[in-house]
């Protein structure tokens, strides 16, 4: 398991760049009662929290909005009218020069890079969810595709997961997949 940056202070922000916390497919309260404690600690540390859909309950959106410095999120296929009223299908942000897009579904794995590069031509990083399978690839042309898996519903994966990444000097750096043990730590 990779190490996350130490507690972020104003002095450390310039050293570390923009810290992203990336999650998806939380399915609360269906798959878990709450997010694992280490994930909540990372919410407190991150400059930007990214959620790629399948929240299931609006309570998590409310809590992440209240606790995050900045939240970028989309709705997923399991999200009902209350979440769809507050979240877009596709979110786009430019963070320190990096053009980020977030969407829940990208279709089947076969051909994903080419399909997403064609669909998101003006994007540097595409975060997606839906499959609960961690994914980190780069499409021809440079589009980086990231799926953090799920911190609460691993399905057939060996671990519950989430990702962190940094944006430093206008580039995505230090992308890391983090595993959570069965107790959530």
Automatic annotation (TrEMBL):
It comes from the Bacteria. The keyword Oxidoreductase does not apply. Residues 20-169 form the Calcineurin-like phosphoesterase domain. The keyword Transcription regulation does not apply. Keywords: Metal-binding. Its cofactor is a divalent metal cation. Its EC number is 3.1.4.-. Gene3D superfamilies: 3.60.21.10. InterPro entries: Calcineurin-like_PHP_lpxH (IPR024654), Metallo-depent_PP-like (IPR029052), Phosphodiesterase_MJ0936/Vps29 (IPR000979). It is an enzyme of class 3 (hydrolase). One of its GO terms (molecular function) is metal ion binding. Belongs to the metallophosphoesterase superfamily. YfcE family. This is Phosphoesterase.
């Amino acid at each position: 398991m990779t190490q996350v940056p130490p507690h972020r202070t104003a002095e450390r922000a310039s050293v570390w760049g923009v810290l992203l916390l990336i999650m998806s497919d939380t399915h609360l309260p269906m798959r878990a009662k709450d997010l694992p404690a280490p994930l909540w600690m990372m919410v407190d540390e991150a400059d930007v929290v990214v959620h790629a859909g399948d929240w299931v309950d609006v309570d998590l959106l409310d809590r992440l909005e209240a606790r995050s410095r900045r939240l970028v999120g989309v709705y997923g296929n399991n999200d009902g009218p209350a979440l769809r009223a507050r979240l877009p299908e596709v979110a786009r942000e430019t963070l320190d020069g990096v053009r980020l897009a977030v969407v829940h579904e990208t279709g089947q794995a076969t051909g994903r890079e080419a399909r997403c590069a064609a669909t998101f031509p003006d994007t540097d990083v595409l975060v997606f969810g839906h499959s609960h399978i961690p994914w980190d690839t780069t499409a021809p042309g440079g589009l980086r595709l990231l799926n953090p898996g799920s911190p609460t519903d691993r399905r057939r994966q060996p671990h519950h997961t989430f990702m962190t990444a940094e944006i430093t000097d206008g580039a995505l750096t230090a992308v890391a997949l983090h595993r959570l043990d069965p107790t959530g730590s």
